């Protein structure tokens, strides 16, 4: 009975380690690129956008109006470089 419990615990640990290493964690700017933001101040080309509840300065070369959704191409310091979603 003790061996069965020990086997189960070892299996749990091995599974937990394997599961946690399956995918690399993304944080910071790299997790924002590719995300969708909402324009809160018209970008022609400079404005502001909201991403996950935070307001950011934004630059959109094509221009974007208020309440329009934009895709984040890059993060330059505290400024989002965005493009309109077609």
Summarize the structure.
The protein is of the alpha+beta class and 86 residues long. 27% of the residues lie in helices and 37% in strands.
Can you tell me about this structure?
- The chain has two helices and five strands; from the N terminus they run H-H-E-E-E-E-E.
- By secondary structure, the chain is an alpha+beta fold.
- The chain has a single domain (about 1-85), classed as OB fold (Dihydrolipoamide Acetyltransferase, E2P) (Beta Barrel), CATH 2.40.50.
- A five-stranded mixed β-barrel has the order 1-2-3-5-4.
- Strand 2 (about 45-50) and strand 3 form a beta hairpin.
- It is rod-shaped.
Structural class, from helix and strand content?
Answer: alpha+beta
Number of domain modules: 1
What is the CATH C-level name?
Answer: Mainly Beta
Order of helices and strands: HHEEEEE
Low-confidence stretches: none
**Count of separate DSSP helical elements:** 2
Largest beta sheet: what is the strand line-up?
1-2-3-5-4
- The average pLDDT value, as a whole number, equals 91
Give me the count of strands. Answer: 5
Q: Helix fraction?
A: 25-40%
- As a whole number of angstroms, the C-alpha radius of gyration is 21 Å
Structural shape: rod-shaped
CATH domain topology: OB fold (Dihydrolipoamide Acetyltransferase, E2P)
Strand content: 35-45%
- Largest sheet entry: 5 strands, mixed, barrel
CATH superfamily: Nucleic acid-binding proteins
- By CATH, the architecture is named Beta Barrel
């Amino acid at each position: 009975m003790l061996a069965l419990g020990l086997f189960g615990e070892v299996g749990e640990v091995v599974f937990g380690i394997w599961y946690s290493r399956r995918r690399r964690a993304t944080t910071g700017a790299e997790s924002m690129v590719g995300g969708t933001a909402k324009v809160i101040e018209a970008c022609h080309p400079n404005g502001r956008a909201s991403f996950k509840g935070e307001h950011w300065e934004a630059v959109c070369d094509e221009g974007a109006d208020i309440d329009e959704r934009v895709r984040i191409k890059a993060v330059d310091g505290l400024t989002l470089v965005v493009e309109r979603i077609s």
